[in-house]
Amino acid sequence: PIGHVLRTLPPVPLPVSRDPDDPVVAEDTLALMAFSPDGGTLAYGVSAPGRLAAPQRFVLWDVARGHARTTLDLATPSSAGALVALALGPSGHTLYATRTPHIGELSNEVWDTTRHRRTAEYSDATGTELALRPDGRLLVATDHTVRPPSGTVRAHNLVQGNEIGALAFAPDGSRLAAGDLSGRVTLWDGSLKHREGVLRNVFPTPLDDTAEAVSALAVSPDGRTLAVGGDAGTLQLWDIATRQPLGGPLTTAGDAIASLAFSPDSTTVHAAGTHVPLMRYTIDPARAVTQICARTGDTGLTPAQWHTYVPDAPYREVCGH
C-alpha cells in the first residue's frame, strides 16, 4: 500500500500434518497474505487446505523496518483446520482469519497479534473472501458482516444469485466492490446501506461464451478507477463515476489474477498471478507518454507498435523531436 517497497521475504515453515503418514508438501499449500490498512504490517504464511495441521505459523512483517515483528501459530488444540483467508486490522494488532475446522464447514476467528491468542470466533459469519474496512469497524465475510469489537453478525447479500470471487474496500473506506463468479461487480457505499450500481460483463465475452469469474479487485486511492482481474487472466480498468470501461483489457500473461494494488498516486496498478512475476502497468496517460519516449530514445512508437499497445486510440506522434 505504501507503493515504494519491493522485497523478497523469508519463507515460513510448512504446516505440520497431524497424520505422520501424510506429510504436507509445498504443492498441497495455499499462500495467504494481508496488509494492514496503513501498509505498515504484512501478515503472510501458508496453509494446507483439507488437512488438520499444527503448528500453522504466520509472520507479521514490519514493512518500514524490514524485519519480522512476530510469528503467530494459528493452530489451537481445538482447531487445526486450514486457513483460507486473512485480513489485518489497523496497525496490525488484530488478525481476522477464515478457517475450515471440518470439511465443508467455515468459521471466522479474531486473533490478538500482540498477545498471541484467539479472542473471538464467529461461526455464523462464514465466507472464503474477507475484506476489512480501513477503519477496522466493519468486516465483510462473503455474505455476512461483522461489527468489531462487539462482534455483531448480520447476513448481507452483496451480489445477486452468485458466489463472490473477490472483495475490496476503497482506501478511504467510502466504497466496497464485490465481484462474483459470473463476471459482474456490485458497488456499495462504505457502510453497505446503499447499492451504488452493478458493472455487468466486466470482461469481454470469450469465444466460447463462458463467463470469466472475478478473482481480484482494487479501488484506486483517488476513488476514480476500479481494477478488475479475472480467473482467465483478463485485467480491465473501469471508470467508477461513469461505470464505463477504460479502453480494452491490459496485456497479461494469461495467468489467473490473484491480487491487485494501485500506487498511492493512482497512476500505476500492480497485478500478481500464481505462476508469473509481478506485473506493473502505468495507467496515467502523461506518465505513460514520458516513459515511452524515454525507452524509445524520444522516437515514439511506430504505427504498428501503436496498434499493438494502444489499439483503442488513433495513431499520433507523442514524443518531441
From TrEMBL:
Q: Is the keyword Metal-binding in the record?
A: no
* WD repeat copies, ranges: 162-189, 207-248
Q: Does the keyword Kinase apply?
A: no
Query: Known Gene3D superfamilies for this protein?
Result: YVTN repeat-like/Quinoprotein amine dehydrogenase (2.130.10.10)
Q: Which UniProt keywords apply?
A: WD repeat
One Pfam family hit: WD40
UniProt cross-references to InterPro entries, sorted A to Z:
Quinoprotein_ADH-like_sf, WD40/YVTN_repeat-like_dom_sf, WD40_rpt
Protein name listed in UniProt: WD40 repeat domain-containing protein
Organism field: Streptomyces ipomoeae
